[in-house]
């Protein structure tokens, strides 16, 4: 997107030069063709074609150094750091702003992965803005974490907080990585981010403060749990992998390690099976193994493990909800309904389980008045401004014929979360049922776009076909 914007910004300048080229002076046809191609490509956002055409033009007119600026910007828009660096090394026109050229070089070096050199050019004199290299460095740091290259991530993150001391997100991620690669340095970084109000940093700092008396295994366990709660799967995997190295017989560590690997798209089955071998009575290990088989499309196998997990820990609402999901996938609607209801009753103050119960009933259009409406009403009462719960309650009233209340609720859900496809789908269905076709088409078209290739998006496209003009 950024490349397209840069290219379109250059299009006007490129097109103007065509007027010069069409003057009576003799101009090689190949050069004119190349410049026209560059202008059209830039206007359409095709930065690769624009760069190639502009390069061809410069070969015909090497003395036109002022054209190097747009060529550099096109190369950067095309993420071609090597080309941009070559153009910069060839020299820039006298009228080019020195700070701009320095920023371009830093961005080009960043594209080439030369982070030390890029950081050395920043900040610019007089604190002029140069966001692109820092943006690329942040992206590279997060990619390094995702690839579990924590040492590489630490190098980038240290540079980032030097360049931008106000970047609390990068400081927090640095502290999280340091917990695993340089534990002694982590507390100071995390506590500094905690003082700036970062909740993730505060959770990690608290976990570390509670662990010293029990040693490194306790610290890894506590921060690992924080990583799991935050869905920071690569960091969670790193924490529990280290814990396994210290305590190879720790069944819970194997189970959580397997879970993290699964969430990263890797094979966590060996770790989950090892956890169960070490502790056959571990309810969490059973549950995670069941979820593994559910994700693998084997719900019957999942039901066996998840039912055993609930037997081992019958008060665990999450286990009950997981079992219900597996039973639903296996086609046992009655059992799924009973276990979704059990999950909500085990933790009645948690709106999530009431929402799961309502959603299950609505998706299958069963027990709408008796179960879905009370469950959705409970979810809304516990979380009054949560658009998903409001949407479910509104849709339930629509299905039972209370269109006035349904419209009020669905319109509110759309207002609270206009980027969510489901409320727009349900609102569009209601409007269509009221023969308010123009409004219905607007909502359903938005739902189709927002839902993309999801089931919600597909339902919206089907509903759109049924709406009259």
Protein traits:
76% helix, single chain, 469 residues, Serine Threonine Protein Phosphatase 5, Tetratricopeptide repeat, disordered N terminus, mainly alpha
Give the gist of this structure:
The protein is mainly alpha-helical and 469 residues long. The protein has helices at residues 2-21, 29-44, 47-60, 68-77, 81-89, 98-111, 115-120, 131-146, 150-163, 168-181, 186-195, 199-209, 215-229, 233-246, 251-263, 269-278, 283-295, 299-312, 317-329, 333-346, 351-364, 368-382, 387-399, 403-416, 421-433, 437-451, 455-466.
Explain what the structure shows.
Helices cover 76% and strands 0% of the residues. It contains 27 helices and no strands. The chain has helices spanning 2-21, 29-44, 47-60, 68-77, 81-89, 98-111, 115-120, 131-146, 150-163, 168-181, 186-195, 199-209, 215-229, 233-246, 251-263, 269-278, 283-295, 299-312, 317-329, 333-346, 351-364, 368-382, 387-399, 403-416, 421-433, 437-451, 455-466. Helix 12 packs antiparallel against helix 13 and helix 25 (421-433) runs antiparallel to helix 26 (437-451).
């Amino acid at each position: 997107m950024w490349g397209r914007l840069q290219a379109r910004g250059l299009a006007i300048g490129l097109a103007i030069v065509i007027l010069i080229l069409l003057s009576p002076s003799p101009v090689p046809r190949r050069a004119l063709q190349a410049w026209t191609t560059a202008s059209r490509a830039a206007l359409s956002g095709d930065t690769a074609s624009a760069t190639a055409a502009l390069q061809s033009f410069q070969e015909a007119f090497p003395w036109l150094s002022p054209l190097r600026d747009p060529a550099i910007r096109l190369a950067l828009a095309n993420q071609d750091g090597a080309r941009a660096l070559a153009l910069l090394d060839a020299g820039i026109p006298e009228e080019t702003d020195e700070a701009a050229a320095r920023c371009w070089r830093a961005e080009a070096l960043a594209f080439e992965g030369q982070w030390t050199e890029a950081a050395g050019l920043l900040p610019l004199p007089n604190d002029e803005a140069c966001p692109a290299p820092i943006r690329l460095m942040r992206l590279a740091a997060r990619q390094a974490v995702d690839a579990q290259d924590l040492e590489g991530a630490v190098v980038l993150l240290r540079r980032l907080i030097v360049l931008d001391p106000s970047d609390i997100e990068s400081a927090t991620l640095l502290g999280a990585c340091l917990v695993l690669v340089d534990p002694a340095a982590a507390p100071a970084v995390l506590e500094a981010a905690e003082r700036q109000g970062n909740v993730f940093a505060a959770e990690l700092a608290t976990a570390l403060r509670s662990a010293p008396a029990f040693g490194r295994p306790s610290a890894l366990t506590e921060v690992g749990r924080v990583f799991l709660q935050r869905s920071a799967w690569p960091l969670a995997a790193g924490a529990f992998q280290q814990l396994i190295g210290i305590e190879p017989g720790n069944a819970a560590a194997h189970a959580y390690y397997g879970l993290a690997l699964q969430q990263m798209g890797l094979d966590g089955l060996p770790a989950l099976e090892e956890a169960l071998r070490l502790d056959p009575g571990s309810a969490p290990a059973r549950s995670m193994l069941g979820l593994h088989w559910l994700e693998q499309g084997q719900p019957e196998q999942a039901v066996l493990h998840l039912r055993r997990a609930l037997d081992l820990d019958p008060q665990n609402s999450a286990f009950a909800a997981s079992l219900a999901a597996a039973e639903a996938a296996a086609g046992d609607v009655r059992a799924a309904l009973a276990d979704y209801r059990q999950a909500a009753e085990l933790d009645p103050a948690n709106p999530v389980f009431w929402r799961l119960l309502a959603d299950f009933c609505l998706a299958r259009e069963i027990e709408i008045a008796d179960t879905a409406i009370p469950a959705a009403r409970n979810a809304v009462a516990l979380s009054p401004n949560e658009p998903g719960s409001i949407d479910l309650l509104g849709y339930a009233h629509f299905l039972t014929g209370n269109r006035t209340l349904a419209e009020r609720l669905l319109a509110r859900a759309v207002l609270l979360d206009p980027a969510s496809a489901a409320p727009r789908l349900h609102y569009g269905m209601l409007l269509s049922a009221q023969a308010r076709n123009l409004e219905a088409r607007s909502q359903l078209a938005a739902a189709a776009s927002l839902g993309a290739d999801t089931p919600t998006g597909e339902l919206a496209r089907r509903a759109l076909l049924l709406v009259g003009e």
